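Query structure, 146 tokens:
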């Protein structure tokens, strides 16, 4: 498996994300699917990462894709992982909040807090949006919560 893992990670310089996507879809091994997530992340392949977040059945691989999105710059539409919060399990929701925190994406954190002000959201997000004190959304949420 080590050879296949190295081969997958080295493909990022040889092919486009669109060319590699069918290989990801055919992969059945959980660890190798996670390696594909890392490869797509290193390529900056946001569309593939979002697709993995939306369709991946394995929670570990899906959460890895969410974390990978969190390490990327925010998409133009501002909603890298927002849709995953609504339908996700507890671990997925925490990964989405963490991804928004990594992006300093106060708008995403505010949207989550307004939609579902749970204990997890309040405790996890509070520290994250406080790192964005200049954000209009962060100020709005602090006013909204008081």
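Result returned for the query:
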């Amino acid at each position: 498996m080590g050879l296949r893992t190295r081969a997958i990670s080295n493909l990022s310089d040889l092919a486009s994300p669109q060319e590699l996507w069918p290989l990801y879809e055919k992969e059945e091994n959980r660890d190798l699917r996670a390696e594909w997530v890392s490869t797509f992340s290193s390529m900056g392949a946001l569309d593939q990462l979002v697709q993995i977040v939306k369709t991946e059945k394995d929670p570990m691989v899906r959460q890895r894709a969410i974390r990978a999105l969190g390490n990327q710059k925010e998409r133009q539409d501002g909603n890298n992982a927002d849709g995953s919060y609504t339908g996700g399990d507890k671990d997925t929701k925490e990964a989405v909040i963490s991804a928004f925190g990594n992006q300093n994406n106060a708008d995403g954190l505010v949207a989550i807090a307004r939609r579902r002000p749970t204990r997890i959201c309040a405790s996890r997000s509070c520290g994250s949006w406080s790192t964005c004190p200049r954000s209009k959304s962060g100020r709005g949420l602090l006013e909204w919560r008081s």
